[in-house]
Amino acid sequence: MRHYKQLLLANKAWAEELTDENPDFFKRQIAGQRPDFLWIGCSDSRVSPEQMTMTPPGGMFIHRNVANLVNTDDLNLMSVLQYATEVLKVRHIIVCGHYGCGGLQATLAGGTHGPVQAWLENARAVLDAHQAEVLGQSSDEARVNRLVEVNVRDQLVQLARTELIQAAWARGQEIFLHGWVYDIRDGHIKPLMEIDAATPLDAIGRPDKVLHATTDAA
After folding, report:
1. Which residue among 20, 28, 36, 44 is the active-site one?
2. Which of 43, 70, 93, 192 has CB 3.0 to 4.6 Å from 155, enough for a Cys bridge?
């Protein structure tokens, strides 16, 4: 059987299982969505936010891109963020990276071209800002994973500085920003940092105390 047909069969089984448990499940989906979370994560096929958090349909608004970057020139992300904050009124926004990120491996290795080269400009800026710390790690794995961590930190701060988040906080909207890293080797999510309306952004340090995914010391 062709692989794409297996996807269709799996979808049919999934829908039947949900309606067996709750016949009105999809009728409620038609009524609209009120998720409490916006997830900004990596496009990596091994990182499935709804599956790894056991979030049912309707519980999480999701945007994914290579290396989970917060690029204010990305109309897709900015549109998602606007809708999430102004219409859905989400309370929690998560920027989640993952150890072993291919986009950040490419940022370290160089040699990219075309759209990928242009897209990773933001990631290269993170590397430049933390170059001594990242390149000072004792192995390739540790270098990538430290870049993953400081990238989550920098993307979260950049998210907090966007006009959309600043406007939401100015009007008294309660929004909490969370920086997480997913470990693809054991399936666990590691929280790195949190930001809210009262957080002084200029005083935020690097996530130095986080336990690293590798055996190498930070």
Report:
1. 44
2. 70
Active-site annotation holder among 42, 130, 143, 178 = 42
DSSP E strands, 82-217? 92-98, 176-182, 189-195
Which tens digit of pLDDT belongs to each residue from 3-13?
888 989 988 99
Question: Which residue among 28, 34, 36, 46 is the active-site one?
Answer: 46
96 is catalytic: no
The residue from 101, 130, 153, 178 that is catalytic is: 101
What gap in Å lies between CA 146 and CA 203, rounded to an integer? 20
Contacts with 14 (C-beta within 8 Å, 6 or more apart), sequence order: none
Q: Is the predicted pLDDT of residue 215 greater than 70, yes or no?
A: no
> What pTM value is reported for the model?
0.89
Of the residues 63, 96, 98, 212, only one is catalytic, namely: 98
- Output the six-digit token pair for 203: 């005083």
CB 213 within 8 A of CB 166: no
| Burial of residue 98, with CB atoms counted within 10 A of its CB: 0-12 exposed, 13-18 middle, 19 or more buried | buried
127: phi then psi, degrees, rounded to nearest 5: -60, -45
Tokens of 35: 């998720």
Tell me if residue 34 is catalytic. Answer: no
Instruction: List, for residues 98-130, the tens digit of each pLDDT value.
Output: 999 999 999 999 999 999 999 999 999 999 999
Eight-class DSSP state of 55: P
